[in-house]
Amino acid sequence: MNILLISLLGCLVVALPSASVQKVKWCVKTQKELEKCKYFTTKSADLECVLQPSTIDCIKSIEKGEADAVTADGKHVYIGGLKPYELRPIIAEKSKTEPCYAVAVVKRGTQFTIKDLKGKTSCHSCYQQSGGWDLPIGRLVRDRIIDWDGPDDMPIEKAVSQFFLRSCVPGISKTTYPNLCSACQGDCKCPPFRPCLIAFECMKRGDGDVAFICHGGIPESERQDFQLLCKDGTRKDVEQYKDCHFGKEPARAVIAHKDAVTQGIYSNLTQVPHSDLFSSDAFGGKDLILSDSATGLVELPKITDSFLYLKQDYYEAMHALRVGSPPAPTPDRKIQWCTISHAEQQKCDSLQIPRLECRRASSVEECIQKVMRREADAFAADGGQVYIAGKCGLVPVMAEQYIQQSCTDSAEASSYHVVAVVRKGSGVTWSKLEGKKSCHTGLNRNAGWKVPDSVICGKKPDCTLYKFFSKGCAPGADPASNMCELCKGSGKEVGDESKCKASSAEIYYGYDGAFRCLAEKAGDVAFIKHTIVGDYTDGKGPEWAKQLKSEEFELICPESPEKTFKYSEFAACKLASVPAHAVVTREDIRDDVVSMLEVAQTSSDGLFKSVGERNLLFSDSTKCLQKSTKSLEEFLTKPYMDMIEKTFETGQGAPDLVKACTLDS
């Protein structure tokens, strides 16, 4: 007995250190920030302060594990996201102050566009500031208006001095780059106050043809006399700056290691009184640790990285400033198609379409991010995924058509019916559905999740599919949740990393996977497309389905809660009709993707056929792809989008990728 007690006490002593709360090491850059940080530690006992000479040194300290977090502006959020650091923004400042939109201001009546800037004179608010240098110069390089091959060729400053006839770039070295100071009146130093107004006055008095400044630097009383140069070669009135700019300066953000437990960092900050967080007067400085103008803090979705936080315009401008202009697009450029499984990659490679190259991702959400980052160009997705992609700035450009005679330009876009399928004789009806086991095509997918979530929980407060069903398989859900319990993974007994993954590595993923989940009696109901039962039974399905008979399956629906229907009676018993799957891409390569696919579907017999697995790249029931010029709202329709957004209110909330893409940083 005594030996057992001593052993237990020994274990307790060993366990005690690991149970203690780990302190958050906050990195500061100046003595004044250190004083403010030390004051924070009197309010939050789990906070420590680490002093480094600069934000870059703080980033290096976090990467080495010597510090945990630092507050950074947009430029340092970008740098922190690069290798080897790979830090991510975890908390953002909220502010009532409108951020800087970097604009190019010219006098009304002048005739040149942004594409005619070479040889003009320029005025800039300040060197290496967002409005006057980083965003406009970065974007001009990105768009090849300033054609710069990168720092190995020459410094960016030299390329700019050769591009403009004369410039005033306050803060740059007058000795090293005299041409970038030749339009200045004075010593070419960055003014401590109102640099945008000084740059505006430089252009207004004729020392420059264009002023690169923040939009707020244009006096309201004079705005009617000036215009903005837009990236697309047009001009707009000054008041339209939100539609005609080089990028928007993001709010300052707290950045940390990509694997950091953000809740501890956030909770430490929120222990400090609000009035102390956003005030620097007592420490003799301005914007110490956090901005004095901030009104609060926002904890960011875990999926947020530097690209999603900074947004495309800002990120690409910073990237171009670092590496130079991208290669000029060619008429026969390859289209990079995003695949989400080994089987899809094999099919994509086997198509041998001249302009098609295949790029691998682990999920549709990763494909969305790859297309945003220009690491891939296109992929096909269902309506729920098209919605997410659309919220991230991508566009649907071609839709699957499932009726052969409708494969004409004038035909109405296809749709399909979502049905709830049960095994015949199981006793499962709509009225007896609660508490049963469910099979879903995937989390946030059309037929498998969005529609049943809307139909079951749409008008019930506090209802979620997680609560409604006892357990299920919804690939892409939290692996620890009941919606991954029924998933089978790759079929391994133990150590299966594929379990509940949102790709065909999970046997129960997609239409065929959800139906297989039902057919193998893992679940009691499957939410799938109306054609699946017919496609997978009576000898037409893959090997696992060879013995299945269509008559073994029935439909249930809320309109007839006590009845079941034949699988072919989907017109009388369905949950909803939803938009067809669509090809998603970026707006800037819409035409290239469409032209490649139009050729491919006439020259490749295998585009809509899958071997070994079903619905690879496209739905096997597709007869053709039809070009769509509709906006996201027109393509999905308002009722359908309302349905999706309603499920966010009653379910687990919007997907993290939607939150990150729609975040106004």
From TrEMBL:
Keywords: Disulfide bond, Ion transport, Iron, Iron transport, Metal-binding, Repeat, Secreted, Signal, Transport. Fe(3+) 2 binds at residue 511. Hydrogencarbonate binds at residues 132, 441, 445, 447-448. Its main location: secreted. The keyword Cell membrane does not apply. Belongs to the transferrin family. This is Serotransferrin. It comes from Leuciscus waleckii.
